[in-house]
Amino acid sequence: MPTGSLFTLGNPLGRLCIGLGLTLSSLCKVPVSATMPLSPYPRIQDGAGIRWDSVQTPLISPEHDNGLAEFDFDAPRLVRFFPSWSDSGQLVGDGSDSLLNSLSEAVWITEADKLEATRTGHGYIDITEHPEWTSASPPSYRQHTRHVYHPPNSTMVPNILPLLSSDEQKANLKTFTSFHTRFYNSDTGHASSRWLYKRILNYTNEYASESLKDAVDIELLLWKHSAFKQESVVVRLSPKSSVTDSITIVGAHCDSMNYAHPFDRSPGADDDGSGTITILEAYRGILRSGYIPSSPLEFHFYAAEEGGLLGSTDISKTYAKEGKDVRGMIEFDMTAWVKAGEPERIGVFVNLADPLLSEYLKSLIDKYLDIPWVQTRYPGKAGSDYMSWTLAGYQSCHAVEGPWGSMNPNPHTTSDRIDISPEFSFDHILRFTKLAVAFAVELSEY
């Protein structure tokens, strides 16, 4: 779910850091006891003894604290807080400059302060490993081609859609939510990414035909991050006779977090297990079809979105520094919930998304899905991984389960489960999977 989505007014941390206008030379650090009194970690109440297929990982038990003892709640981190979108106009222009100028000044806070800020609705981007983003002026490497988009007209997409399976998604999400938590600095968060990597590897070995492998280089990466345990997973399909180097990216975040305590149980079925299985099944369907892209196609599973867009920031900044050209990036963050009594819709979020790509996204929904889109916005000080790509100067867009006020109320709690309500819909997830396929194929066919 978007970082800082539980918006509340008058948070002391926001007033302290942003109100004082602190800069890099000042350390905005409040004692942990003053900002986030943490109860003793409850030794496992559920999840003990779970076996996750063939993944070898320490089980949560009274003898194993899942990495809690290693986590330094007092460690300083450099962040820039999101603006209050309701007070900042549309902020939807071409995105990157508007976002950079609207963020708070960079301030130092502790890991505990970050958790409290997230819990109370003050979203941020953690730039500790990217201090060049402290300036109001963007780095020189953040300059990219502005793409235009062809009307959707693929003959391949309709052939792939019948290959998608809700049963496959149910099985994957059942396993993915069995990890005690996917918190990015926990042992089980690390293990969950390893399971995801192995799942993708198995799909690649099973479904990538010899003719596909003759035409496309398929690369599967565990992207290690220096600041936390969990790894991002990146899959690249690079045609050997590519007509262009412009990359199409389909993304979701693979971590979860319980706001009561980051090491508590956090199944994260909707946030963002649903987005993860959305793009995982899109990848499987594309492999099964034998589709050969004309330009590079990638699937990204980001670690540590809940920690301030950490994984996607590392990756997007690396791409920018290497001068990579991205035709378009889409993020799926929560795709399962259909609020009772309301029509089923696709939410197209526009805060700092690229207007042209967002309009293209709407055209894909009109062409390939049997439900309508609704344009919507994050309130308060919320954000998600697509904004990392916006900040890096790329064109990004964002598809979510519905309008903001109709979204699942259970994320960041023990209740973010598959079985919590009939409103959790695998049929809805499958529609987003069709959209992911359409985006991936339409943009990589030329």
Describe this structure in words.
- The chain is α/β, with parallel strands linked by helices and 446 residues long.
- 32% of the residues lie in helices and 14% in strands.
- It is built from 13 helices and eleven strands.
- The strands form two sheets. The chain has an eight-stranded mixed beta sheet, with helices on both faces. Strands 2-1-3 form a three-stranded antiparallel beta sheet.
- Helix 6 crosses helix 9, helix 7 runs parallel beside helix 9 (269-289) and helix 9 (269-289) crosses helix 13.
- It is globular and about 55 Å long.
- The two termini are 32 Å apart.
> For the record, what is the CATH homologous superfamily label of the largest domain?
Zn peptidases
- List low-confidence stretches: 5-62, 87-94
Instruction: Report Rg.
Output: 20 Å
* Side-by-side strand order of the widest sheet: 4-5-7-6-8-11-9-10
Q: What is the total tally of β strands?
A: 11
Mean pLDDT: 84
Q: What key attributes describe this structure?
A:
Aminopeptidase; eight-stranded mixed sheet; three-stranded antiparallel sheet; 446 residues; alpha/beta; single chain
